[in-house]
């Protein structure tokens, strides 16, 4: 059979399966991003806090989730989450069973890893914003939360963007690890196609090219966002 | 703590840790050898050489390590007759070797970018001064630029080693019994979640030790360029 026929969308072709896998990979990455960002912001705030306990927690969190292999984090969230959830459910409603969805487990695990790295990026960005910005906002009578939202965040985005863009590209690749917890992402669908067609080199090569295409498209998008946040901020020549 | 389980699988997990270390040491050191020509290729004025090096680095960094491992491990099976003909099949049949190869090729691309960045970060004045002293280009690189670039590369290289330790866990998925592989085996037999937590402690300890030791090495090697 010719190879191009194998990735066609018609009968006997694996185009539909690969497209479905790609779509799940994209959805997982997009769902993880806001979750990871918000968690990362919270961890960054904990590390900037005056409270020693909070600071210690933030640092421990970062050390642990930057040190663990992503694959192990996924297993721990998937199996451990199952056990914890089951305990809660049997406490509330004895006799009931519950199963954690691979998608949610993958999203939490990848989001936690993302947030650990993102908190460091955001911490650096916070340090790049002068004290005067906070003081000026206070002098204008802004309360802490509006200060953060109106004054700090717009500047934070500009400073944190290169680091966060890098983390996004890493996240996109890390989604491939969820294929081990039976989630039908691109790599798992490719694996199924390989088992049927016995063309591993071709199909895994195609999967790599699809990942590469996703990275390229992301890079284009990142450049566009960068240009947008840099507007009104002329670089020193 | 489940002591019986620890007795059964503790020693095997330590063996797995050794396999993980072997994979990382092989990949990082062979990757470093491969990375130098790639980094030089990236900086070459020859457009073909530069383009090829760029394409290699871009392709490796844009695809997941797990997909690359599958490509080599399962893909090699497809070329069995050819590999047997050149007498290399016994290597590609082995999952450990396939992982070592994939990780080497992977880290070579990342390390190439680290070395390129370090070489470019050495101030221009250094090579200009060397030139004015009459040193030839080769000598300038070897005696002036390279020693300073190595120091600049130390920190990112330390990060790369840690990323490789974490990344090497994907070897478990292609049947290598590294730390992750042994852990998965222990879990599938005992269904005791603890084993994953032990593995977590071992990985964290390994990463922290490497980070501290690397910090010491870096501080020692850069003691002459520090201010104060």
Please state the oligomeric state of the protein chains shown: heterodimer
Reading the helices and strands of chain A in chain order gives HHHHHHHHH
What is the average of the pLDDT values of chain A?
91
Spatial shape of chain A = flat
Regions of chain B with pLDDT < 50 over 5+ consecutive residues? none
Count helical runs of chain B. Answer: 10
CATH class value of the domain at 18-174 in chain B: Mainly Alpha
Shape of chain B: flat
Strand content of chain A: under 5%
Structural class of chain B: mainly alpha
Tally of helical segments of chain A: 9
Q: How many E strands of chain A? A: 0
Secondary-structure content class of chain A: mainly alpha
Explained architecture:
The complex is a heterodimer of chains A (about 240) and B (about 230). Chain A is an all-alpha fold. Chain A has a single domain (about 15-230), classed as Orthogonal Bundle (MetI-like fold), CATH 1.10.3720. Chain A is built from nine helices and no strands. Chain A has helices at about 5, 15-50, 50-65, 70-90, 100-125, 130-140, 145-175, 185-195, 200-230. In chain A, helix 2 runs antiparallel to helix 8 (about 185-195). Chain A is flat, with a radius of gyration of 22 Å. Chain A starts with a helix and ends in a 7-residue tail after the last helix. Chain B starts with a helix and ends in a 7-residue tail after the last helix. Chain B has a domain at about 20-175: MetI-like (MetI-like fold), CATH 1.10.3720.10. By secondary structure, chain B is mainly alpha-helical. The mean pLDDT of chain B is about 95. Chain B is about 80% helix and about 0% strand. At the A-B interface, helix 3, helix 4, helix 7, helix 8 and helix 9 of A face helix 3, helix 8, helix 9 and helix 10 of B.
């Amino acid at each position: 059979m010719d190879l191009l026929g194998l990735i066609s969308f018609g009968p006997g072709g694996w185009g539909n399966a690969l497209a479905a896998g790609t779509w799940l990979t994209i959805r997982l990455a997009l769902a993880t991003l806001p979750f990871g960002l918000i968690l990362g912001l919270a961890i960054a705030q904990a590390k900037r806090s005056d409270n020693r306990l909070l600071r210690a927690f933030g640092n421990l969190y970062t050390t642990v989730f930057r040190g663990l292999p992503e694959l192990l984090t996924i297993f721990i969230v998937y199996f451990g989450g199952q056990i914890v959830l089951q305990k809660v459910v049997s406490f509330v409603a004895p006799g009931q069973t519950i199963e954690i969805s691979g998608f949610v487990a993958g999203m939490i695990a990848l989001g936690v890893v993302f947030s650990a790295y993102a908190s460091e990026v955001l911490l650096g960005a916070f340090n790049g914003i002068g004290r005067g910005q906070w003081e000026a906002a206070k002098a204008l009578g802004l309360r802490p939360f509006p200060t953060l939202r109106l004054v700090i965040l717009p500047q934070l985005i500009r400073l944190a963007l290169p680091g966060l863009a890098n983390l996004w590209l890493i996240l996109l690749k890390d989604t491939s690890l969820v294929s081990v917890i039976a989630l039908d992402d691109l790599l798992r669908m490719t694996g199924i196609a390989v088992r049927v067609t016995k063309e591993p080199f071709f199909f895994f090569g195609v999967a790599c090219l699809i990942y590469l295409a996703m990275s390229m498209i992301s890079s284009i998008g990142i450049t566009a966002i960068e240009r947008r946040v840099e507007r009104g901020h002329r670089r020193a020549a | 703590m489940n002591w019986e389980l620890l007795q059964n699988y503790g020693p095997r997990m330590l063996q797995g840790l050794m396999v993980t270390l072997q994979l990382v040491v092989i990949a990082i050191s062979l990757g470093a050898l491969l990375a130098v020509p790639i980094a030089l290729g990236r900086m070459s004025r020859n457009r073909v050489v530069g383009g090829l090096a760029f394409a290699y680095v871009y392709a490796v960094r844009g695809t997941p390590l797990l997909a690359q491992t599958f490509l080599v491990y399962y893909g090699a099976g497809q070329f069995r007759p050819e590999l047997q003909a050149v007498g290399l099949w016994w290597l590609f049949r082995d999952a450990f070797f396939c992982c070592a190869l994939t990780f080497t090729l992977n880290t070579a691309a990342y390390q190439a970018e680290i070395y390129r960045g370090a070489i470019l970060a050495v101030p221009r004045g250094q090579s200009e001064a060397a030139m004015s002293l009459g040193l030839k280009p080769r000598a300038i690189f070897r005696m002036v630029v390279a020693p300073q670039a190595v120091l600049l590369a130390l920190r990112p290289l330390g990060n790369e080693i840690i990323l490789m330790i974490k990344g090497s866990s994907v070897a478990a998925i292609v049947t290598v019994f590294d730390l992750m592989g042994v852990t998965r085996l222990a879990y599938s037999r005992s269904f005791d979640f603890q084993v994953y937590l032990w593995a977590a402690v071992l990985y964290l300890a390994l990463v922290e030790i490497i980070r501290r030791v690397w910090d010491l090495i870096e501080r020692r090697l850069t003691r002459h360029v520090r201010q104060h």
